[in-house]
Amino acid sequence: MPLVSGHDVIQHCTARGLVAGAFNTTNIETTMGIIDAVEKVGVPTFIQVAPTNVKLSGYEYVYDMVARRLADTTVPVALHLDHGKSLAAVEAALAADFTSIMIDASEEPLAENTAISATARRMCGASIALEAELGSIGGKEDDVAPEFASTTDPAQVSDFAAAVGCDMLAVSVGNVHGYAPNARIDFDLLERVRAASSVPLVIHGGSGLPEEQLGRLADFGVVKVNVASDLRNAMIRSFGEAYAANPNENSLIRVSLDAVAAISEVVERRIRMLNPSL
Ligand code: 13P
């Protein structure tokens, strides 16, 4: 099936009471692992890439790779720009036909965040879903960490979401990018954020959160949960184990396909954790 808009993934998931995983890709192995799992589980999903990760290939290449792998699938998948930190990144992803966009101006003061995100809204038009961020999520996304982290202020949520017109809002409620052993969702804060607006919420930093917390997010207006580190770690570990088992291994295809299977297992597990009713 062709790529669908982020709107479609949100609608499908909302209608079925599901939370969409949003899995970061970098390369063909990761893309295959994600799509294999999504096809098996049948839950609409976002595949996403951040500007830091298109260094290997470029937006057009990522689009072609994902669209080609999806050709024989039946589950709605959107291709999303993760952490578009500039309007130039938004422009590049839109030019490559991405179907969902995140603008992340969350480190700017509120007025600038609102203005930049509203500009991204105009650039996306009505057909492309837009995610914005309010409150700055801490931890490292790849090697990039924000200069400061701050939690989302529930008092700002309604006005921000209305002024931007975003379709999804990424919030900072105890979640942290990367493997942060003490990362925990503050459900009291999440509940206050949810009560402030009906905008569907996004939780970043899915790799470090405990299973019990992931399984509760659907009840708090969360529609999308980002997972990246787990997939990267699965691939690096799989290659590392192959090398440790045989330093003379030279079947790159076998080792790569083992990595695809390892990534797929992680993705499937995360989708099931997010949706315990499956
Ligand atoms: P993790 O690396 O903690 O899964 O976070 C990924 C993420 O939020 C990407 O935006």
Automatic annotation (TrEMBL):
InterPro entries, alphabetized: Aldolase_TIM, Class_II_FBP_aldolase, FBA_II
Cofactor: Zn(2+)
Keyword Lyase: yes
Superkingdom per UniProt: Bacteria
Gene Ontology molecular function: any one: fructose-bisphosphate aldolase activity
Enzyme Commission number(s) of this protein: 4.1.2.13
Alphabetized UniProt keyword annotations: Lyase
Enzyme class: lyase
Translocase keyword on record: no
Entry-linked SUPFAM superfamilies: Aldolase (SSF51569)
Listed Pfam families: F_bP_aldolase
Protein name, UniProt field: Class II fructose-bisphosphate aldolase
